Amino acid sequence: MSLPPNTAPPNTAHGRGYLAIPGPSVMPDAVLQAMHRASPNIYAGALIDMMPDLTRDLCRVARTQHDVAIYIGNGHAAWEAALSNTIAPGDRVLVPSSGHFAHGWADMAEGLGAQVDLLEFGKQSPFDVNRIADALQADTAHEIKAVLAVHVDTSSSIRNDIAAIRKAMDDVNHPALLMADCIASLGCDTFEMDAWGVDVMVTACQKGLMVPAGTSFVFFNDRAGAARAKMPRVSRYWDWVPRANPDGFWQYFNGTAPTHHLYGLRVALDMIHAEGMDQVWARHRRLARAIWAACDVWASKGGLRMNVADPAHRSTAVTSLRLDAPDGTRLRDWVEDNLGLTLGIGLGMGEGRESDAFFRFGHMGHVNGQMIMGLLGGVETGLCALDIEHGTGALDAAAKVIAGG
Ligand SMILES: *Cc1c(COP(=O)(O)O)cnc(C)c1O
């Protein structure tokens, strides 16, 4: 007896899914394969031997000659680590904000007893460095110990000019440390820690570095090291001194190493340096410009808008968009259910019904032209399926950019 035919509509989400959110990002198969192994010896052998080259190659991505401390933790851990080494209870920090993540870092500082001066620039504009300079100039007693600057705010997709902040700080002769959050930008957007005068930089492995979430990094220079030396007390676990210059292997991590992450990270760094930093940045720029070209066409009719109007202030790793509520959520749900394509939610961009207006594309790390065309084609499919008004010809516009136009 034969079974009746299955007449359900075909499942067009079947196949390999595509997580196009701004972190965790797409992991290269080579990274996953490097992690697929038995636990290594943590007392001698390959794992121990790989550390000097690993930290050197991490510093090459950060463009620094200085030190790095590695933590088993996410980006929030790196935030806390950076502050724990430099900011004592009662110290003041200046936090310019162009989105959700600046508030997160500010909150972390408050939790450690710092006094936070928040400079709000909204969710659609980058920092105005003149206002940062004014705030520093007004601080004649030099109570502000650090400026906490998010390079790319992943919620708004605004990219801030970190070098301009250093210049503003130098112009008013303020001795505060410049700290940058490059969690969403390292390995995607151009970043030059030493050349831009950044004293402390925090990042994590699950975005531009293409490794599953679980390790994070604090890079620091000699000025930051001097600030650390003046701290009345630093908790043993967060202390970056033994992690950056360990006498024994266990001190890199203050305990058991993140064994498999280190193997994955090794391969990810090899991929990045084989491509070359300039090429990695150029690839992100090209692919981002293709996305923006498509968005401009869609936006020519109907309610779709990119959050950041000026391309000069956009991240090349994440794009925040809006549609009329609730179409942002409808679109995300539809492409996930019907295409296996997962877009980012609008993080901290709106409350209540408004939150259904926003969505984001992650285009960081292990992404190429066919993936971006797939992402854009998927979004266009969703716009058509849901009858959301949009301009036509977006894929043509993106294709021209990817092909070199
Ligand atoms: C992702 C992100 C964070 C938080 O990182 P977690 O790993 O989620 O703790 C902080 N800042 C920025 C800019 C980010 O993109």
UniProtKB/TrEMBL annotation:
Pfam families: Aminotran_5
EC main group: oxidoreductase
Keywords: Oxidoreductase, Pyridoxal phosphate
EC number from the UniProt entry: 1.12.-.-
Post-translational modification N6-(pyridoxal phosphate)lysine, affected residues: 207
Cofactor(s) the protein requires to work: pyridoxal 5'-phosphate
Sequence similarity: Belongs to the class-V pyridoxal-phosphate-dependent aminotransferase family.
Name the UniProt record assigns to this protein: Soluble hydrogenase 42 kDa subunit
Organism: Ascidiaceihabitans donghaensis
